[in-house]
Fold:
Amino acid sequence: MSQQKPPKKKYNKAINTAARLSGSAIQMGIVIYLGVWGGKWLDAHYGTEKIFLPICTLLAVAISIYLVIQQLKKIND
Structure:
């Protein structure tokens, strides 16, 4: 009996999708990190106490979610 091999196209597509999602997760982490860092820097620069930090953090989270949704749209097409 011969052993059946999985279809190569489905396998390649699955790997491609996993790579894109991994990249999106890394991108999301970097965007949020930069938002937090920028908020801390703005607070230190202007001498405020935790005013810019939550604003920049929430903005970075919103941007990263938007970027992930755009990437998911590209994957589904």
User: Anything to note?
Assistant: Residues 37 and 47 are 15 Å apart (CA to CA). Residues 8-46 form the longest helix (39 residues). The chain has a mean pLDDT of 89. The radius of gyration is 20 Å.
